[in-house]
Design a protein that fits this description.
The chain is mostly helical. It folds into two domains: 224 residues, no CATH class; 222 residues, no CATH class. The chain is 84% helix and 0% strand. It contains 19 helices and no strands. Helix 3 crosses helix 8 and helix 9 crosses helix 13. The two termini are 42 Å apart.
Length: 514
């Protein structure tokens, strides 16, 4: 396959590209959120929190077809598929996605009226403004929806660099345009949502061009053929089951809080969730990078390399996620103050940040085992685990949120991810990579995590409370750096990579000096 579909690309390059794209997007969000709150108010920011939750819903409710396409394209390295067939499959999915987007846009305004009348609880915002904002939000979600398919396709053909160039360009346009709208055109939540709709259309268009240019040419125009979806249906149905149940588990807190709390309280919870989501800057790029690689190795039935890749990725997840989570937990108040420059906001949200960071870190560690399950086409385990979690945790959420508010939701998030790490991973290793469970808990994840926690905690105890902004930032950076160093030394695979890299660098320097 010419152009994109020379699919063998280095994992480090793909991972770095994924981290760069997500880091740029997150950096812009972290810079802009305090501006949104200052210009629009925390109540309007509560609507933006709803927008973020709705975006997550759109990713989950694509019937699992985007993940199925990702897996299908990744397997091309081993099982060659004719160019015409794969292009017909992409065209068929593409038309389904754009059709769904049109339906979403048409239904957005009636849905906005229902939500305003029966769900959200504005305090100062006029109901008419809330209806307009939610209606335009529906259009924005519609324009962004097809991008899910194009991004999955680009990951499948391992064009991570191109994908993240598109992501960086689109998020830059979104950020700069939002600032221009808020400062010079319409400093309202309606203006904010309008530009999200425009920038979403730009992003989906870039994704369309990128994916089609990365597919092999066939000489025949791609067609809509329902039959081309048959070979994707079994896997996509399983992924949809996982996605639907995961949607309930990951978004039920925000959905329930949007009903029970005022919009300003929801805004604080959303701010804390955004702060904790910084951990996904590592976990999700690692998943996106490892999943196609594991899929290729599973298709080749290369169990030895499959196990090695799984172990190395698990250690990398622990080394990168746990130190960052520890810094968020220990320095949450300081970091929130440095970010928002608002004492009230830091006081309201810092405990939520610490709790949500614990659950998000556990979720990040569980991403590599989940990638292995999907690579093997094994969707039943995650679906059953999510279904059982709904039966146990959703009633707990309904019980705790009315009594403890946002803190109850954060505790349920922790419990959910403890269950994934303790029970789901253990069950997986009864059938896959049998005999690896003890090593995964102790060597791959446990030792790096304990080393990171110890290093960051000792650093926090030694530096104490910092008086100036510079000292606060320096203390957090020092704790994070020492935690990463300690975790890396405790992880055999990561330690081997680091020492090998140092030796290569030393050899290069020595050779150049001669």
């Amino acid at each position: 396959m010419p152009r994109g579909p020379n699919l063998v690309r280095s994992l480090p390059q793909n991972f770095v590209a994924s981290v760069a794209g997500r880091s740029w997007s997150a950096a812009l969000s972290f810079v802009l959120v305090p501006i949104y709150i200052r210009v629009l108010g925390v109540e309007a920011y509560g609507i933006i929190v709803l927008f973020a939750s709705a975006q997550a819903v759109m990713v989950f409710l694509d019937l699992g077809l985007s993940t199925a396409l990702n897996r299908e394209l990744a397997s091309l390295q081993i099982h060659r598929v004719d160019a015409r067939g794969i292009r017909d499959t992409v065209r068929t999915l593409e038309l389904l996605y754009w059709g769904a987007a049109v339906f979403m846009a048409v239904a957005s305004m009636p849905a906005a009226r229902l939500l305003t009348a029966h769900w959200v609880r504005p305090v100062e915002l006029p109901p008419a403004s809330v209806v307009q904002a939610l209606g335009i939000m529906g259009v924005a979600l519609a324009t962004q929806f097809p991008y899910t398919l194009y991004a999955a396709g680009l990951m499948g053909v391992q064009r991570h660099v191109l994908l993240n160039r598109i992501l960086i360009a689109a998020t830059s346009v979104r950020a700069l345009g939002t600032l221009a709208v808020l400062y010079w055109l319409a400093p309202t939540v309606q203006g904010f949502m309008t530009w999200q709709a425009v920038s979403g259309l730009i992003q989906s268009s870039l994704g369309l061009l990128g994916l089609w240019r990365s597919l092999p040419p066939s000489g025949v125009r791609a067609r809509f053929i329902v039959g081309s979806l048959r070979h994707l249906s079994r896997f996509s149905v399983g992924v949809f089951g996982i996605s639907a149940t995961a949607l309930i588990l990951t978004q039920a807190d925000k959905i329930l809080l949007s009903r029970l709390l005022t919009l300003d309280a929801l805004g604080y919870y959303g701010l804390a969730s955004l702060a904790a989501s910084v951990l996904s800057l590592v976990a999700l790029p690692l998943f996106n990078t490892v999943f196609p690689r594991l899929t290729s190795l599973a298709a080749a039935r290369d169990e030895a390399r499959l196990g090695n890749t799984y172990r190395a990725a698990s250690q990398a997840a622990a080394v990168l996620v746990v130190p960052a989570a520890t810094v968020l937990i220990l320095f949450s108040r300081d970091l929130l103050w440095l970010w928002t420059r608002d004492v009230a906001t830091a006081d309201q949200a810092h405990r939520l940040v610490s709790l949500l960071a614990i659950g998000t870190a556990l979720n990040g560690i569980a991403q590599v085992p989940y990638a292995l399950q999907l690579a093997l086409g094994w969707t039943k385990l995650a679906f059953v685990a999510n279904s059982l979690s709904i039966m146990v945790l959703l009633p707990l959420l309904v019980f705790l949120v009315p009594r403890w508010g946002a803190f109850g939701a954060a505790l349920v998030w922790i419990a959910l991810n403890v269950g994934y790490v303790v029970f789901v991973v253990a069950w997986m290793h009864r059938k896959v990579l049998v005999g690896e469970l003890r090593r995964w808990y102790i060597s791959d994840v446990g030792l790096p995590a304990v080393a990171a926690l110890a290093a960051a905690t000792v650093t926090r105890a030694l530096v104490g409370r910092s008086a100036t902004d510079g000292d606060r930032l320096l203390s957090a950076v020092a704790a994070g750096s020492l935690a990463i160093l300690a975790a890396g030394l405790a992880a055999s695979e990561v330690r081997g990579w680091a020492f090998a890299g140092i030796r290569r660098l030393a050899a290069t320097i020595t050779g150049s000096s001669r």
